[in-house]
Amino acid sequence: MEKNQSTALIFELSRSGRRCARLPVSDVPDAVVTIPQRFMADAPPALPELGELDVVRHFVNLSTKNMSIDTNFYPLGSCTMKYNPKRHERLAALAGLADVHPLQDDETCQGILGLLYEMQSYLAEIAGLHGVSLQPAAGAQGELTALLVASAYFKDKGQKRTRVLIPDSAHGTNPASAAIAGFDAVQIKSQGGYVDLEDLKAKLDDRTAVFMITNPNTLGLFEKQIATITKLVHEAGGLVYLDGANMNAILGITRPGDFGADMMHYNVHKTFTGPHGAGGPGSGPIAVRDMLIPYLPSPLVVRQGDRYTLDEDRPQSIGRVRSFFGNVGILIRGYCYIRTLGPSGLREVSDQAVLNANYLLSRLKDQFEVPQGDRCMHEFVASCRTLRREKNISAMEIAKRLLDFGYHAPTVYFPLVVPEALMIEPTETENKETLDAFADTLIKIKGEDAAFLKEAPHTLSRSRPDEVKAAKEPILRWKPA
Amino acid sequence: MSYVQNTAEQQAAMLASIGVDCIEALFAPIPSELRLKRLLDIPAAMSEIELTRHMTALASRNRNASDSVCFLGGGAYDHFIPAVVDAICSRSEYYTAYTPYQAEASQGSLQAFFEFQTLICQLTGMEVANASLYEGGTSVTEAVLMAAGVTGRHGRVIVAESVHPDYRSTLKTYLANLEPKVTEVPTPEGFANPDDIRKVLDDQTSCVVLQHPNFFGCLEEVEEVAKLCHAVGALLVVSFDPISLGILKKPGDYGADIAVAEGQGLGNPLNYGGPYLGLLACREAYVRKIPGRVVGQTTDRLGRRTYALTLQTREQHIRREKATSNICTNQGLMALKAAVHLTALGPSGLRETAHLCLNKAHYAVAQIETMTDMRRRFNRPFFKEFTLQSSVPVHSLLEHARDDGYLAGLALARWYEGLEDCFSVTVTEKRTRSEIDGLARSLQSAVRHGVRAVMA
Ligand SMILES: Cc1ncc(COP(=O)(O)O)c(C=O)c1O
């Protein structure tokens, strides 16, 4: 069916004079004359003109050209593509939540403030930390916010610490956030999938502000030396930051605060199932230890008796990292998730996420090289290095061919420390049948002809976009012929 | 609730395949002294029925733009959202997909984002746009960081005080440990006087940031400021209101170099502040300095028109600490909403929307000035938002109106010294003449009430 659908752009469907949305006739006098001519446009922007049916048909047809959680298994490592409950969508759309203006007086939005206050406290408890800011819009902004908090903290203590240490297996946002926060990012080596303690020791000194660690790390391993690492960093006077992208593995099992982290971010759009929206929105709240609370962005929600208010009077705060309160719509979904799962349900999430990942690993470990061994937490990273050397089949070939079988590809070529990486995260919401079928497919693909794989996918509407050309001669917008 | 599907027998079979006898064994790598030996201290699980009851109760404790008449603005607006926007964007093929890393499996979103980028270019008159940033404040900030990269100037950034206070504080937070220093230009007349900008503008300045229409609703002398900037090699960064471009001159036509915006008004509900939509468009020459995801058109193996994420060497996953920005997850779904919204409006719909806003806002101010002794604080042209000076304490005035069912305006005292007696009122296309008349009556009675209170 897909083949017959138009791939025209909305601009190419446009016909002068067509309309979709209609506005009411004005019931007040015309005021345009009051605006000086120098501010006025000669004509409105040349947007496309379509009828309502064509608008709907265009975008609905486009939607069918996507893979999504609701249509396909989506084992994209590090992204925690779990089922997004429909009840969350319905409840977040209630007028009493969705239509609340961010600058309404606190008295007029006690319901939302109460929810956000509770969310702060749940996230503090799950982290084993003491204060929470819900403001960051995504994980990367959470990282930056926490690093600015750390910087303000050290400034107050009169310490000049200029470096942030980051393992080579870390996500790219870690060093990028460190740079914006004004730190030098210093890379720490990995050794057998874990932090190289010798390298860490060599680089730790009184210039170290923060050590950023992802735990479980991006290889899907729990950092077994974590207690030693956090002790070393603390002895050097530094703070430990936990990149919480992998919290799905440890909910209610161990808490970052308990293993020595001083600050962390959550990705509500991963762990707490905010739908990812083909790119966003996310929500990246941070949790911190008590001595860092004064520096958190303003406002925080505070409770006085049975009233909730936004506290902006926080003189040591780093300030805001965005306008208004935060990505509240996503926080509401996360709140619904936590309330419907409860303490045992959250624990079950991690149990089952880890079970599913290990099961899939057990099905694949004899077929694919998994440098980090035969156990993992919520995800694992296979390597196609040997496959590539021996059969000329790369991770990209496997990824693209999987699409033909109706599976979204795993994350490829990340983490950078594993050559030809295939990073697989099944999540807890998939069943054994799906995992089995996926494993069978991977094994089958591995036996296919390399030349055939180089041209995969074979059954989708597009195959192998020329990325070099896209970057060399960028075409970033449609232009009239 | 539980979303786990594996049955007890399946779990047993899975454990056997792994070679352990219980799930607990899989957590062996976590040292036992680090384990939480109790359940998390959070409330017990609820069923869907209970959750719905609970959430409905919470929602009922919030006044909102559906049960009150909303005249609030300040960067978040109660604009009309056509039904097609929600219908399309609640397709789960869109909202449950991840960032389109695998182009072949994401042509739907990729084409939609390519269309979004084009629509933003058409809207702004700029040459390129990215596929979204977080929201208005970080968009201003990213534009300032980008301007430093483009000009190679890491000295001064000039920002008008009429720019949204949240955007300015976001910018200062981000710049805390970076080189550029912010010089704020006071705006006592409700706009940034070009003469005041000229006084601080120098050849070390990377950019001037204006918001147009600004936080008070007033129009800025953007064209003149653009000329001043260009004369010293600085860039003009303008934060615009997308709806205003139905009638106001486009940033590309008045000389803006980087145009950014809060795009919430394009199809996104108020949501108590987020998720919103950061827009960023600029000149083609800066394209390799742009922050965030960008979708490009290319061809596939068989020569077919295809879309893919491109120019990725700017981004954090490749450049790490040298990336143009740290952004990864953006606001994709909001960009899709904006694309559908702009398509649904089309040129006529956008123009009519802007006209209605302008006319109704001007009608509102006339009514209020006729019926009360309140006057506009600034003698400047404005679009849909205006600032009034109150003769009675603003807080009680707004409270009075609230009791009458109006979210009447924003008290400016919390942001601006000297404007303690002022509040801003926004009128969108959704407001009717009778709602505006009602607001004016409510304010009138509040003023009378206030006068009585003072005399008593
Ligand atoms: C390990 C890790 N860290 C950080 C991030 C950044 O989070 P976000 O995309 O929410 O900004 C991600 C997600 O992409 C991640 O996988």
Structural notes for this entry:
The complex is a heterodimer of chains A (481) and B (456). Chain A is of the alpha/beta class and 481 residues long. Chain A folds into 3 domains: 4-63, no CATH class; 87-341, Aspartate Aminotransferase, domain 2; 351-470, Aspartate Aminotransferase, domain 1 (Alpha-Beta Complex), CATH 3.90.1150. Chain A has 15 helices and 14 strands. Chain A has helices spanning 10-13, 52-63, 86-92, 95-98, 110-127, 139-156, 173-180, 197-203, 226-235, 328-364, 385-391, 395-404, 432-446, 450-454, 467-472; strands at residues 131-133, 163-167, 184-188, 190-191, 194-195, 208-214, 239-243, 263-265, 286-288, 300-304, 307-311, 380-383, 411-412, 421-424. In chain A, a hairpin with an 8-residue loop joins strand 13 (411-412) and strand 14 (421-424). The mean pLDDT of chain A is 97. In chain B, helix 5 (107-124) runs parallel beside helix 12 (332-371) and helix 6 crosses helix 7 (165-175). The model of chain B has no long low-confidence stretch (mean pLDDT 96). Chain B folds into 2 domains: 69-78 and 346-455, Aspartate Aminotransferase, domain 1; 83-342, Type I PLP-dependent aspartate aminotransferase-like (Major domain) (Aspartate Aminotransferase, domain 2). Chain B is built from 14 helices and 15 strands. Chain B has helices at 8-18, 48-60, 83-89, 92-95, 107-124, 136-151, 165-175, 194-200, 222-231, 251-254, 316-319, 332-371, 394-403, 433-455; strands at residues 69-70, 128-129, 156-160, 181-185, 205-212, 235-240, 258-262, 278-282, 295-299, 305-309, 375-376, 385-389, 406-407, 410-411, 422-426. In chain B, the strands form 4 sheets. Chain B has a 7-stranded mixed β-sheet, sandwiched between helices. The longest helix of chain B is centred in the C-terminal third of the chain and has 40 residues, at 332-371. With 456 residues, chain B is α/β, with parallel strands linked by helices. Chain B is 39% helix and 14% strand. The radius of gyration of chain B is 26 Å and the shape is globular. At the A-B interface, helix 2, helix 3, helix 4, helix 5 and helix 6 of A face helix 1, helix 2, helix 3, helix 4 and helix 5 of B. Pyridoxal-5'-phosphate is lined by residues 78, 138-140, 171, 173, 214, 218, 243, 245, 267, 282, 284 of chain A.
